[in-house]
Amino acid sequence: MRxxxxxxxxxxxxxxxxxxxxVRVERVTAAADAGQTINPDGLRNQIEGGIIQGASWTLKxxxxxxxxxxxxxxxxxxxxxxxxxVPAVDVVLIDHPELPSLGAGEASQGPxxxxxxxxxxxxxxxxxxxxxxxxxx
Length: 137
Prior knowledge:
Helix content is about 25%, strand content about 20%. It has 3 helices and 3 strands, in the order ββαβαα. It has helices at about 40-60, 110-120, 130-135; strands spanning about 5-15, 25-35, 90-95.
């Protein structure tokens, strides 16, 4: 039985600074199968947006808190991926006009996190963000 969600396969070109351990995603190429593609631009934008959001979660975002409260209460305390750090993204759509259209929301967010983690730390990661101090802990 076919799922009701879009299939996404992708590869991330990742660079790790050997001195600092900082991870940078330079390019992501994704292939998406959403059954019959009704709006190619909309589908491509949905996949690309999920890749960028997932990369930000993976590399930057983490709510910090202590025993009493949340400490990340603004954009300084809760960093996100900035425009300068957004990777180039290529999305290839696989159209199946004979099949029903599938939901594409958030289809690329899980795969991008796994691709970045596997290409950068070469081991199973059990939490995000995978910045250097957390990876070496």
